[in-house]
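Subject: mismatched residue count in predicted assembly?

I count 647 residues in my input, but I want to confirm that the predicted structure covers every chain. Input:
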Amino acid sequence: MARVKLTDVVKIYGNDEVVHGITIDIPHNEFLVLVGPSGCGKSTTLRMIAGLEVIDRGTVEIGDRVVNDTAPKDRDIAMVFQNYALYPHMTVYENMAFGLKLRKYPKAEITQRVAEAANILGISELMERRPKALSGGQRQRVAMGRAIVRKPQVFLFDEPLSNLDAKLRVQMRTEIKKLHQKVATTIVYVTHDQVEAMTLADRIVVLNDGYIEQIGDPMTLYEQPVNKFVASFIGSPAMNFIPGRVVAANGGEALAFRVDDRVSLPIPAASRERYAPLRDKEALLGIRPEHIADGAEGAPATIQATVSVVEPMGSDTMVFFDFKGVEITARVSPHAGARPGERLRFVLDMEKIHLIDPSTDKVL
Amino acid sequence: MGAAYLGETYWRRLIVFYIPMFMFLAAMLFPFYWMTVTSVKADAELYNAKAIPFLVFDFTLDHWIYLFRETLYIRWALNTLFIATVSTAISLFAGTLAGYSLARLRFPGSSTFGISIFVTYLVPPTLLFIPLAGVVSDLRLYDSPWALILTYPTFLVPFSTWLLMGYFRTIPREMEECARIDGATRLQAFVKVVLPLGLPGLISAGIFSFTLSWNEFLYALVFISSPEQKTIPVGVVSELIKGDVFFWGSLMAGALFGSVPVAIVYSFFVEHYVSGITGAVKG
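Triage response: the counts match. Full output below for your records.
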């Protein structure tokens, strides 16, 4: 059983603590993604699991074994690097057989395992080529093949798709997901791209500045972010944040979000209790572009604004407008006919808002 | 695109590229030509002020015969070859290990150590030979090839280390890390991945070390005295210049023959390995 467990793992470079006590429990066969902005410590954490960085405090366990002092080669892991790290002086076959040869596997088994992996990845006809004769996607596949043949307990991926062009990235994402279905192994995957994280992960760990902001499955992170960072990081285009105040409305029972003298957005009855602590306090209204639509008069929560930029994406159209000094993104139907300079009415789905306490940046 | 246009580009190339290149080549190859011509020219023509210096009319092999029969030239050539080869081997061995450690490993004092290696390189041999002479005689190595084999690394190793350190730095770290995850110890990763990729660097360091050792004059002059132990640079100068008499024909023959191995080493190795491997390291 290849369970990976990190307990209070700390990394210090010189005098700087860059990873502050990370605890993650990854059950067997889970696809866990570490996501976060550059410098958040995700690659460092991955490298500590791999054994390429010393663990300064805390423990890393792979399959119930504490591996803090175990050499990388004895941790039974395989890693796919961002730059593929293929050995340029060896053929594809030799690249894939390298690890098995080092461990003195019999030749027949090596041939069989390499053929099997090559089959899964569709690279069987590339065996005699050198890396420099391969395209980016092919190289990435060979790098994955090299990891698969070892049949390790854990696969580690360090931003493997960052070097590929957009179209290839989408393709390879699906391949990696299919791979996970075919080869049931625990995967720890690092990326800065939250779309990759959302599409690939069973669970996501959002990291920021060496701290875990939130752990959860993709939909939970999307629908119930715990703080402003996670709310703004997950989801593309990013969530909008409108500053304002939570006030009493309609005689005291109801709550509304008052942006200014003219705009007051009613908060649904179901959320009243939840947001009661923010009554009469400043707050940030978080709402995703997909929950702002072009709307008709008479809807309960509407704002009017002048469109500044229109981005047609085919299936949707993104509209940017300025509202009280904040740039808001809204997703409207492609046939709404939005044009820059036009004044439009936008309807906010108040069931889907996230109110944030600006003093703690936490979502209530 | 008429013929006039094509002619224009051709002329431009001629003036901008071919002619300067030809002049450069002529300047570089002229010494070899001069040595060849002088070594096969009879003394009468050689010392005739009215003869054309660039052409040979009185061809002779006497100077070459003198060089190989009457002097210990062959012995000197073998000495030089032996000393240069072993010194190169030592400097490559030490330089590779030091270069790798300084490029890759973080250990306390590594930067101080690196700086001190380079600082020793800055001390000129013209200053260093005096104390080294004392060391050589204390170790009873005076007048033996080992005096040179063990002192040449003082300037070969810093240079090789610097060159190889720079070269190893260009090899992506991930490749070694991948090898270490695949199952290699650090040493195995070094031998199976880093060294093959570092081959152009090793060849460069090797060529430079070999050339520097082969052409070295000062230490060979100071630490070797008996004629049988001399190297080509020292032997040719000491045995072919008697007082103020210069045996030019044989001198040139000796110099030409002495520079041929290095020229061969350069042309063979550089063509073979560097062109094939550069560009494929960032796989």
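The interface with chain A takes residues 172, 174-175, 177-185, 188, 192-193, 196-197, 277, 279-283 of chain B (CB under 8 Å). Marking this ticket as 'not a bug'.
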